[in-house]
Amino acid sequence: MALPVVLLAGPTASGKTSLAIKLCRALSSGFTAEIVNADSMQIYRFMDIGTAKPTLEERLNVSHHLLDIADPDDPFDAARYLEAARPLVEDLRARFILPLVVGGTGLYMRVLTRGLCSGPPSDPEVKERLVSLESSLGLASLYRDLLLVDPQSAARIHPNDRQRIIRALEVFHIAGTPLSFLQKSHGFTSELFPTVKIFITRERDALYERIDQRVEQMIDAGLKAEVEGLISKGFGPELKPMQSIGYKQMAAHLADRLSLDEARFEIKRETRRYAKRQITWFRGESEFRSFHAEDFEGIYLHIVQSIENLPDQKPRIHR
Question: Residue 263 contacts by C-beta under 8 Å, 6 or more apart in sequence?
Answer without folding.
Answer: 249, 250, 252, 253
